[in-house]
Amino acid sequence: MENIKVRANPNSMRIEGKDQRTMRHFNPYPKHGLLFSVFFAFMIFYGADAYDPLDPTGNITIKWDVVSWTPDGYVAVVTMNNFQMYRHIMSPGWTLGWNWPKKEVIWSMVGAQTTEQGDCSKFKANIPHCCKKNPIVVDMLPGVPYNQQIANCCKGGVVASWGQDPAGAVSSFQVSVGVAGTSNKTVKLPRNFTLLGPGPGYTCGPANVVPSTTFLSPDRRRKTQALMTWNVTCTYSQFLARKNPSCCVSFSSFYNETITPCPNCACGCPNKRNCIKSDSKLLSRVGVNTPRKDNAPLLQCTRHMCPIRVHWHVKLNYKDYWRAKVAITNFNYRLNYTQWTLVVQHPNLNNVTQVFSFDYKPLVPYQSINDTGMFHGMKFYNDLLMEAGPTGNVQSEVLLQKDINTFTLKQGWAFPRKVYFNGDECMLPPPDSYPFLPNSGYMDSLRFTVLATLVLSVLMVIL
Ligand SMILES: *[C@@H]1O[C@H](CO)[C@@H](O)[C@H](O)[C@H]1NC(C)=O
Ligand SMILES: *[C@@H]1O[C@H](CO)[C@@H](O)[C@H](O)[C@H]1NC(C)=O
Ligand SMILES: *[C@@H]1O[C@H](CO)[C@@H](O)[C@H](O)[C@H]1NC(C)=O
Ligand SMILES: *[C@@H]1O[C@H](CO)[C@@H](O)[C@H](O)[C@H]1NC(C)=O
Ligand SMILES: *[C@@H]1O[C@H](CO)[C@@H](O)[C@H](O)[C@H]1NC(C)=O
Ligand SMILES: *[C@@H]1O[C@H](CO)[C@@H](O)[C@H](O)[C@H]1NC(C)=O
Ligand SMILES: *[C@@H]1O[C@H](CO)[C@@H](O)[C@H](O)[C@H]1NC(C)=O
Ligand SMILES: CC(=O)N[C@H]1CO[C@H](CO)[C@@H](O)[C@@H]1O
Hints:
It is a single chain. A hairpin with a 2-residue loop joins strand 1 and strand 2 (73-82). This protein starts with 12 loop residues before the first helix and ends with a helix. 11% of the residues lie in helices and 32% in strands. It is mainly beta. Bound molecules: 2-acetamido-2-deoxy-beta-D-glucopyranose (NAG) (8 copies). One 2-acetamido-2-deoxy-beta-D-glucopyranose is lined by residues 289, 291, 334-336, 386-387.
């Protein structure tokens, strides 16, 4: 799969020079040019800030609902809502930490636990669940006894993305806090929230008291209200999560034999030290696929050294439609991607007619621009992207209706502007390396289409 041959064509040098120029002037957003320039300026100044242009309001909100006051504190239900459209928290799940402002302790928890108890030597009879000033909480694994569960708990910290599965985009636990305030006047909010999910990347704001949540009884006939509610909002920044991208994109087309590979070292070449060749004998060893505690990957050696490659192939050009093929390949021998998502930005996604073998959902982050969509696997069919190897890929085709005014095969128009895998932006090849239409572009592609159609009809007659 990985050994993509790029045909070197010395005759194309002159043409390439010319096209590079046009490519630089090619603006995929003619109408929104200013908007995007302002936006890029913003990105340069606030590069480290957690702002995702394709999901501008994406966040994880952690809500504490005090459901009862106790003699020395309170019981709260903590609910984590993942409002990010396409960034889920995959196994091994979230880790949530905070600091107690005073001498609070956790008497007990339901549906989650702290990783350490800390020093509870001050307590004689009842021993708290956790006495640390900075408790670190993790979800329980599925299958804990029923009396240790609450709704939306015990999923091993796995939380779906809002765009893929709103019902699964929530995780909850209950905490009983002692040596704390016992009324809405005396309670002190926990501080300095940290969220790992499962790696770094999230930054949490301060807790803020918000209007109390109202709950509807299961029969929906009675409303109850939390005694007090506070919210914490956490946002993700890929920049904080990792130095290098974690995926890259390659391109090909029916109108040019060139395959534009992922950029070299797209995901950082220091990885190369520990990579493993796809024909290595080590691969037949038992345990080579076993995930590590620290999630360290075992990558197949490639020129890009990315765990994920997304390939976009412009496959066919019909009269009113065109068709692209999308393939995602996993190069990590130690990771199965569950509930993976692929986000693509392309101006023609406003006219997606059919998506084969993936689910598709348009994302409309700005009311006026419908150019972004999310692909994800079909449940029980290809929502699991298997570890590197012969089964480590998923693929689909997309049929798009042409808008005659904008459709073109020139200047790389048919390739995506942005690609995200699991919420992280993938590195695209440099624009001047895109497969481009031979000079007599339109006629050639027409001839090719006619030829291809002819061959296809002949084949169909024969078969
Ligand atoms: C968090 O996301 C929700 C849902 O998109 C949005 O309504 C809310 O304003 C966001 N909060 C912040 C602080 O961005
Ligand atoms: C607090 O978080 C909940 C989701 O957990 C959200 O529905 C609510 O709008 C938030 N409140 C405020 C004021 O942000
Ligand atoms: C929270 O973090 C800030 C600095 O990051 C620190 O000054 C402050 O003491 C911390 N608060 C608590 C309660 O630990
Ligand atoms: C605190 O609770 C009392 C009733 O127990 C209520 O009247 C008051 O508005 C609450 N204050 C806040 C800040 O929620
Ligand atoms: C991936 O999933 C398959 C099937 O569920 C399993 O056999 C394999 O061990 C998993 N691989 C990893 C790396 O977890
Ligand atoms: C966006 O485009 C999709 C087709 O990809 C269409 O189904 C959807 O209705 C469009 N949404 C808006 C708000 O234009
Ligand atoms: C195919 O595209 C490449 C650029 O990636 C270009 O160098 C080459 O000349 C193109 N081939 C033809 C036949 O035009
Ligand atoms: C050819 C075609 O269907 N064009 C439509 C593409 O989508 C835009 C907006 O979503 C419509 O206005 C076009 O008619």
